């Protein structure tokens, strides 16, 4: 655990919070999305929260942590939903939200502090240059850009730009190492892979440079269908329209839109599956033509809604990605979800096949994306949860049918999104965090190099008593 008293002396003058209740609050994220993670991680808490005001204070903290051997778990807004930001070994929770300034906007790019909230960042780039970031999670209004790069994978905008780790979606990340004399490194090109989606296990990101595209006043549209299959086909066809600019394209299977989208409920019949679209204003005419050709029924358009109708309605991106699940959890706390890839070119058929196999036990929610240059879809299906054994059986059925599952019920990098060890991230951890103090327990390759990822057994992190994981 290290010498916390000494660390406190070394960082004297920095903002520290040690009230156990407040520290516990800042030691959680949305891990409770998963009944499995909730059981495993509920007790986790750090010892203190440190909130540096600038990069120099981050450097000072990491030097002190190295000297005192105190673990440091970096936190943006704590909206990650796999326990990524939870300090499994206690120690410091490093709150990055003070490093939030936008320091440069150019045609095509922005530079900002890692703690900048993405919505606020866009407000500034829109006002100063008519541009916006190309990709953001559905937690746009609360999450930090550093947390997105370290813990996210893609989201709104992925229909055009693919995933966050695709080349070109991050221009530069400035990273502080955890050594006796921390280094400040500007990572670009291939080096970005060292820290993108590494959960802050091998460096603390203080500043990022990201690409921008033209900003639009996106129009939210809901289109209704009598079957999931018809909705999926429509979305797949729309995703393949080269001339119609959309920023997000989701499909939500009946009865979820009616049951979960409470503020939009008045527009949706319970037996309707819905396609949720964020549409560029200049694409409205083409989109109407496309809908007429497909005989598709537009249920709601934000550009045609009255002020009264718009009151209290969340934006379309907050019906999408993990917000669909969040809305579901508010209505029915017993549900959970999965993350599935329906690979190109069979996505539409696979969606129909899995819906036939699972029926209402696993109602689907799809997000269309560009994946390796092709338009296909991820599933974030709702699971009507019964037992962990059944959840594992559902995962196996997806995988047996050619749909890889990125398990959101695991807190380690490898078992969740990556599905394998990343040797580049591991090697960088050896250099940048030789004492293994950054977010301990999240990179299996570091903690347990012999771990067999194919074994299916749960990873036992030494910081969590085995009883918690049984
Ligand atoms: P945190 O949760 O605080 O941190 C995430 C990870 O990054 C942690 O491991 C943390 O240690 C690390 N970290 C944070 N800041 C830094 C830093 N400066 N340097 C190094 N490491 C750091 N994710 C998506 O990708 N797409 C989505 O569409 C999406 N939708 C979501 C919807 C809901 C309702 C919820 C609950 C989650 C969703 N997420 C999504 C997950 C999460 O909201 C995003 O990834 C978000 O960008 C995380 O940002 P944050 O500031 O909350 O990071």
How many H/I helical runs? 18
The side-by-side strand order for the widest beta sheet comes to 14-11-13-12-17-18-16
* Structure classification: alpha+beta
Helix content: 25-40%
Q: What this model shows, in words?
A:
It is a single chain. This protein has 470 residues and is α+β, with helices and mostly antiparallel strands. Among the domains are: 4-95, Uridine Diphospho-n-acetylenolpyruvylglucosamine Reductase, domain 2; 219-400, FAD-linked oxidases, C-terminal domain (Vanillyl-alcohol Oxidase, Chain A, domain 3, 3-Layer(aba) Sandwich). Helix content is 31%, strand content 20%. The chain contains 18 helices and 19 strands. Strands 14-11-13-12-17-18-16 form a 7-stranded antiparallel β-sheet. Strands 5, 6, 7, 8, 9 and 10 form a 6-stranded antiparallel β-sheet that branches. Helix 1 (4-10) packs antiparallel against helix 4 (55-68) and helix 8 runs antiparallel to helix 13 (347-358). The chain starts with a helix and ends with a helix. It binds flavin-adenine dinucleotide. Flavin-adenine dinucleotide binds at residues 29-30, 73-81, 84-85, 96, 114, 137-139, 143-144, 146-148, 150-155, 199-200, 204-205, 321-323, 326, 439.
